[in-house]
Design brief:
The longest helix is centred in the N-terminal third of the chain and has 27 residues. The protein has 10 helices and 14 strands. The protein has 300 residues and is an alpha/beta fold. It has a 5-stranded mixed beta sheet with strand order 4-3-5-14-6, with helices on one face. A 5-stranded mixed beta sheet has the order 11-8-12-7-13. The chain has a two-stranded antiparallel ribbon with strand order 1-2.
Length: 300
């Protein structure tokens, strides 16, 4: 058998489902990756992958081998991090993705980590697209709302609720809604593809279908349009906090809370999270715990 690098190469191909994607993440050429896999199969005397035009899938032997390789690589990484940790340093690359709406929370935190660990490379992608963590080579994803990827390791790091708001100019012109049903007579600015707005009225939940001519996939755009007096918006409370504090926007229907949901982290299905990923997750938990407007409505 070749060494740990060949194991890592094999695991990357197995997890990404293709030689090209694995080669891109490893920083190697496709030919080198292919040769390493072929050499491993020859050395073991078994076929590790079933190949097709769509990619590669581990055989039964390949699945067993991947499980054992991941365990070995995890233990090696744990041993390495234990030694490095004593020196207080982190190295390598940390690649993460988060929604655009969280850049103002995540970006400053990454700046602090970058200063503390100068040998750590950070690649942050802020997008509302649901990325393929394994296929695209990400170490961590931050998501708003319960994730659907059962194959990934998820952790809820903060509870959160949405807040309803409008500009003073809009409310002066159109009136202030007193109960959720009043929203049916207002211009509501909603997320593209979003569902009903839900509110707790007494002991029951009421669903309102937002009516309006403006939709977007950007929470920041909703805030801008609402600030311009174009309608009533509804976004996560942490995103609207600074506008509400300044008085650009006014919270509405605060006595009718929306359902609580969460902010989650997702990471590839490795037995143990790398130290750099654990560091970021714990820092995020602390940052969100100290943040304003995460749970419930924002105080004004």
């Amino acid at each position: 058998m070749s060494g740990f690098e060949d194991m890592r190469c094999f695991v990357e191909v197995a997890n990404s489902g293709g030689v090209n994607r694995a080669a891109s993440r490893l920083g190697l050429s496709k030919s080198i990756v292919s040769r390493r896999i072929s050499a491993m199969e020859e050395d073991l005397g078994v076929q590790l992958f079933t190949r097709s035009t769509r990619g590669v899938v581990p055989t039964e032997a390949g699945q067993e081998f991947r499980m054992r390789c991941e365990r070995i690589l995890s233990e090696v990484a744990e041993a390495r991090e234990a030694v490095i940790g004593k020196g207080g340093d982190l190295t390598g690359q940390l690649r993460l993705t988060a929604p655009q709406s969280m850049d103002k929370v995540v970006a400053p935190l990454l700046g602090v980590i970058a200063k503390q660990y100068p040998r750590l490379q950070i690649d942050a992608v802020f997008t509302d697209r649901i990325v393929d963590l394994v296929g695209e080579g990400f170490d961590l994803a931050i998501r708003i709302g319960e994730p659907r990827e059962a194959s990934l390791i998820g952790r809820k790091i903060a509870p959160i609720r949405a807040v309803l708001f409008a500009s003073p100019a809009y409310l002066e012109r159109e009136g202030v809604p007193q109960v959720p049903a009043d929203l049916e007579n207002h211009q509501c600015i909603s997320y593209t593809g979003g569902g009903d707005w839900r509110f707790r009225v007494g002991r029951r939940w009421v669903s309102i279908r937002p009516q309006g001519r403006l939709r977007t996939d950007s929470g920041e755009t909703i805030l801008q349009w609402a600030s311009a007096g174009l309608g009533i918006g509804n976004v996560p409370a942490f995103l609207a906090a600074r506008h509400l504090e300044r008085g650009d926007l006014v919270p509405l229907l605060t006595e009718f809370p929306s359902p609580e949901y969460g902010i989650y982290t997702l990471r590839p299905p490795n037995p143990r999270a790398p130290a750099k990923v654990t560091l970021l997750i714990e820092a995020l938990i602390e940052e969100l715990k100290n943040g304003k407007g995460l749970v419930g409505q924002v105080d004004t």
